[in-house]
Design goal:
alpha/beta, Aminopeptidase, Alpha-Beta Plaits, 2 domains, four-stranded antiparallel β-sheet, 10 helices, binds zinc ion
């Protein structure tokens, strides 16, 4: 069956869903209107569902008429607190905006739902649709997992996608896929350097936390440059530093905050420990002390090699060999699909779509002028459907 053609036939529905959702963007873990909209479409399709995360997540099942495995398909549905400036007729007017394309993800998954429901009798096994809130910093996926969405039936593999382009050079409608470490973690840490306040002219009477902080900032970069393989990506950034009240006073303490990004889960654990050891060690050696806290945010997103290989075969049936871009370097950004992929082997891939302003400048996601190329949406639905059939029926 040609699933691309099959999806093309419902393209207008997918675009309509996307535009409807685009006009009701909601933030975080509370998506009452968005969730209700998705539920309404599923009802129209005759698909049963349950809700999670206080009604804002929607989980639906298709198939199950013949025994088999269960595949999960995930779409995030939340928007961003950005005032939209696209001037499109379907622009949002509520102060929030779908500036990351999650409206498109939801619409593509609804498209896949419709196509799969029509072919439900042919499915060996079950498809679990996971419509998720709170991707943009709220760990919606983690909440859903804690509430048991990956059980009953247990999800054997999971797929998710993101629309957009890493750069303006990639034509629309391509599939970008990585066979392993795909995106980095999104962690945060805090260091409080403790010294002893004194007059700026008599540093010997105090312990200067400013000077200690300076040493720590430099030394932390040695984790990146000296303590890991050169080919393994890592970022440690101190983004905020505050301390002191006047030019001639040595303060009691200095506060620093930073972010750390790693694609490798083991390196992440190692660095989380080392940042604290280095900061504390330097502070103590310079007669001060330090408090350290590390927050493990979204984990590194790691695709399963095996599932990705299978997915690439499926994708080739939909878009053709030349339209699949297989990459090896991770993206230095976070994505909470990583929580699902920690539990279940699967693949997170990208469907390219680039938009430009009137001067021809590329508009990145999270920008008030961001938009998606609606011509590619049916491809996303088709990729899901093809992968489902290949995974369940092979
Ligand atoms: Zn985003
Ligand atoms: Zn996103």
């Amino acid at each position: 069956m040609d699933f691309k053609e099959y999806a093309k036939a419902i393209e207008q529905d997918i675009i309509r869903w996307r535009r409807d959702l685009h006009q009701i963007p909601e933030i975080g873990l509370e998506l009452p209107k968005t969730s209700a909209y998705v539920q309404e479409q599923l009802k129209d399709m005759g698909i049963e569902f349950e809700t999670y995360v206080n009604g804002s997540a929607v989980v639906a099942l298709i198939g199950g008429k013949h025994p088999g495995k269960t595949i999960g398909l995930r779409a995030d549905m939340d928007a961003l607190p950005i005032e939209e400036e696209t001037n499109m007729p379907y622009s949002s007017t509520n102060g929030n905006m779908h500036a990351c394309g999650h409206d498109a993800h939801t619409a593509m998954l609804l498209g896949a739902a419709k196509l799969l429901k029509d072919k439900e009798d042919l499915l060996k096994g079950t498809v679990k649709l996971l419509f998720q809130p709170g991707e943009e910093g709220f760990a919606g996926a983690k909440h859903m997992i804690e509430e048991g969405v990956l059980e009953n039936p247990k999800v054997d593999t999971i797929l998710g996608l993101h629309i957009g382009s890493p750069s303006q050079d990639v034509p629309d409608g391509k599939v970008i896929v990585n066979h392993g470490k795909t995106m980095t973690c999104l962690d945060q840490f805090w260091i409080k350097v403790k010294g002893k306040g004194a007059h700026g002219a008599y540093p010997d009477q105090g312990v200067d936390p400013m000077v200690i902080a300076g040493q720590i900032i430099g030394a932390l970069q040695c984790i990146v440059s000296r303590e890991k393989s050169g080919v393994e990506p890592a970022i440690i950034t101190i983004g905020k530093i505050s301390g002191g009240t006047a030019f001639n006073i040595i303060p009691d303490f200095v506060d620093m905050e930073g972010t750390a990004r790693f694609a490798d889960p083991e390196l992440r654990e190692y660095a989380a420990k080392r940042i604290g050891e280095i900061a504390t060690g330097i502070a103590k050696s310079m007669r001060g002390d330090c408090e350290y806290k590390y927050h493990f945010g979204y984990p590194p997103l790691v695709n399963s090699k095996e599932v990705t290989e299978k997915f690439v075969k499926s994708a080739k049936k939909v878009v053709g060999e030349d339209d699949i871009i297989e990459v090896t370097n991770p993206i230095m950004g976070g994505e909470d699909m990583a929580y699902f992929l920690e539990e279940v082997p699967g693949t997170f891939f990208f469907l390219t779509s680039s938009v430009y302003d009137s001067q021809g400048n590329f508009i990145p996601s999270h920008n008030s002028k961001f938009d998606v190329v609606e011509d590619v949406l049916h491809i996303g639905s088709a990729l899901f459907v093809q992968a489902v059939f290949d995974f369940l029926n092979e």
